[in-house]
């Protein structure tokens, strides 16, 4: 219930500030007092937005009563910036348009240009990109007319930022580089730090991490020169990001830890949370899941704390807005319809009613918020448990994949062994086939000899025997056995003839047969028998083959063919 009590306490303080602010009785015709209110509002816009709102609203009311156009313009601009910082972009646009109209009325071109730039950012976050770009271009025209270099540089930065968010990186680079050149001429270190940071962001989006690191490092140098500690935290964190995205986790840890320590020292909670989240990512990539989980858990805890505080402040701001509007209406009613004392009494009663109603509403909101936080914590815990279960499942799947890989390797080894055995079997078949051819030809040779003897001894069967001998001679020339042999041979040595052809293109069919038989390392007797030629003819054939293959005299023909 602690956030609830804090919220009620802040509500009472804000009510007191508003009451005190309206109770101040200073001369409304004094423009210096209005300027003081506007200056004070501008001063507190970033550090204490609630106080800034009160002063800006008072300045606007007094300026409108007096008809002080410059005061109206500045007050509207401050209120526009207040709502922009709070995420109320529609209200911000409304106030900034009023500011532009008032600045034009008094001829303050610088005020018009600045308000156009603020309006462009409000339209951008309100998702009206084209209108936002038009606003920045209007601001740029004014700064060019006034030859205001710093204003031009700021506007170029805004336009480049728009193009970056639309992923039009070439245009984004063009405008950011224009801004960089102007700041360089002006020697504006703070401006240079901002633009180099933008350039680094663009190159990081383009995944050009070395270039992104170069610009982030330059931004770090510039911001150190102007001692902008808050922006330095962003620079260190961005450099750590570029190292992590390039896989350089050791250097990434160095810069991210520096960002973490500086954010912690300066109590910059949003930047501290960003550093914690980046540290978790880096340790996860390294494989140190214990530290990764610890930093991620710290990031979630810090996020919850920031969310709690921001929720309380947001409710207090909403109450402040509500109270201020109610107070304005009460003042108008008082001036128009009743006397001063009666108005004060009614205003007091209204405040009591508002405080009571606000307290009840805040109490309800606090209870709902507390229950929501409990539910969110439980869901985060369940998500963490689910993540751990997923990691365990992935680990088991990895082990299973390793086992499957081993099985596949074993199957591959067995298949290779089977193929080797098949190759050996086909080699034996090839040799057997060659020997069968040798035996057949030997048989035919012997049969031919015998038939010649018969022919010489028996004259009456001469014609038939001649025909028989001619048939046997013809069988020597048949290619069927050679085709079978060639088929077996190519199964064992699939690339032999192709490689042989690449060395010598004019080999005859007879030469190829001789090369195949020599590749099998058969004896000269077996080769001559298979080819049906004499030993002398075989020697001549071998000699001619050596010449066609262009072998040296000392080169071994059989060894050369085995190399294929």
From TrEMBL:
Q: Which Gene3D superfamilies match?
A: Tetratricopeptide repeat domain (1.25.40.10), Winged helix-like DNA-binding domain superfamily/Winged helix DNA-binding domain (1.10.10.10)
Report each TPR repeat as a residue range.
Answer: 113-146, 193-226
Q: Transmembrane ranges?
A: 350-372
Q: Does the keyword Transmembrane apply?
A: yes
The record ties this protein, via Pfam families, to: TPR_10, TPR_12
**Protein name in UniProt:** Tetratricopeptide repeat protein
Q: Which PANTHER family match?
A: RAPSYN-RELATED
Q: Has keyword Transmembrane?
A: yes
Q: Which residues form a coiled coil?
A: 381-464
Q: Note the InterPro entries from the entry.
A: Sig_transdc_resp-reg_C-effctor (IPR016032), TPR-like_helical_dom_sf (IPR011990), TPR_rpt (IPR019734), WH-like_DNA-bd_sf (IPR036388)
